[in-house]
Write a structure and sequence with these properties.
It is found in: Membrane. Keywords: Membrane, Transmembrane, Transmembrane helix. Its main location: membrane. The chain is mainly alpha-helical. It contains three helices and two strands; from the N terminus they run ββααα. Helix 1 runs antiparallel to helix 2 (53-69), helix 1 (32-50) packs parallel to helix 3 and helix 2 (53-69) runs antiparallel to helix 3. The longest helix has 21 residues, at 76-96.
């Protein structure tokens, strides 16, 4: 049994936390903005070419995620072009068919 006034902790065994590093001194890079940017471009092109409104909206969503997760040192031209492409996909799909969007699962055959 441990007496009441003895501290069982061992301060000489405490190690300070260090964030994991990929290779050497370089910090781990988050690739989420890059993936979302590519997905935004792909969905924008699908929305433009196939006239799918839901693809255009998903593209805008991916562009917003890419912008929110980007660093200040990232290429702003690529993020801006992704936004503009997704906005143009939305505008063009609604100019061609101004009816409200029907989700793909709601077009089932009766």
């Amino acid at each position: 049994m441990i007496p009441g006034n003895v501290d069982p902790r061992r301060p000489d065994k405490v190690q300070r936390y260090k964030a994991p590093q990929a290779n050497g001194n370089a910090p781990v890079e988050d690739l989420t903005p890059d993936y979302m940017n590519i997905l935004g471009m792909v969905f924008s092109m699908c929305g433009l070419m196939m006239r799918l409104k839901w693809c255009a909206w998903v593209a805008l969503y991916c562009s917003c995620i890419s912008f929110a997760n980007s660093r200040i040192s990232d290429d702003t031209k690529q993020i801006l072009s992704s936004f503009m492409l997704s906005i143009s996909a939305i505008v063009m799909s609604y100019l061609q068919n101004p009816q409200p969007m029907t989700p793909p699962w709601a077009t089932a055959v009766n």
